[in-house]
């Protein structure tokens, strides 16, 4: 799933390539992806893109004075850029393309989504706050005014596992499964640690790891074209999606815990005092 660093990289890329260009045509190939009907998506035709920004995991393209094209790539979505947009006809239901946007210089982009579970979302709104997912976002962890004290206040009293809390967009915006793994590894903290029980030193370590991990990942993503962002993300991971590999910090073997639709990765030596966490799939089989 694209998370803050990759979405920021896409927003920067679109800011460099699409801002100042006029939308000439939009083609919706997956009607379920379009979540709004007023304004209609055709209202964007003939309108100049004036800004590109990130809100959590959302990309917001501001168009003219009061229109915004908001994109959420969900778990398996991506953006494919073309300097020369293909002239081929998009056939709904027979392509991974959900949306095509053509610009006045012949360039443009497709939003694509792999797999059978379709969650990619497209909104055309007059105010980004009209998008429910944006309206409920918590603070951005890289905002200058997001302090260690503000972070501690978010954790205070929450009887929630820290892994889940970091992924909760209403608490902190932009972090998903991959970067929560990376942050917790950098902080040398179990994903099952309860937020309310963290000591001041734990909070310091976690806050520093979060800011440093995300800052480095955003810097790595910035300036890369969309086609290179996924590989850059994979190369930067220390534990996420590296089950069975060697932890680069201590040399232990990276392990996984599997859930219904995802897994988490961690290093026992670095994060859980050398104790492996129970594999949920194996536990179910043994019952």
TrEMBL record:
Keywords: DNA damage, DNA repair, DNA-binding, Glycosidase, Hydrolase, Lyase, Metal-binding, Multifunctional enzyme, Zinc, Zinc-finger. One of its GO terms (molecular function) is damaged DNA binding. InterPro entries: DNA_glyclase_Znf_dom_DNA_BS (IPR015887), FPG_cat (IPR012319), FPG_N (IPR035937), H2TH_FPG (IPR015886), Ribosomal_uS13-like_H2TH (IPR010979), Znf_DNA_glyclase/AP_lyase (IPR000214), Znf_FPG/IleRS (IPR010663). Residues 238-272 form the FPG-type domain. It catalyses: Hydrolysis of DNA containing ring-opened 7-methylguanine residues, releasing 2,6-diamino-4-hydroxy-5-(N-methyl)formamidopyrimidine; 2'-deoxyribonucleotide-(2'-deoxyribose 5'-phosphate)-2'-deoxyribonucleotide-DNA = a 3'-end 2'-deoxyribonucleotide-(2,3-dehydro-2,3-deoxyribose 5'-phosphate)-DNA + a 5'-end 5'-phospho-2'-deoxyribonucleoside-DNA + H(+). Belongs to the FPG family. This is DNA-(Apurinic or apyrimidinic site) lyase /formamidopyrimidine-DNA glycosylase. It comes from Microbacterium saperdae.
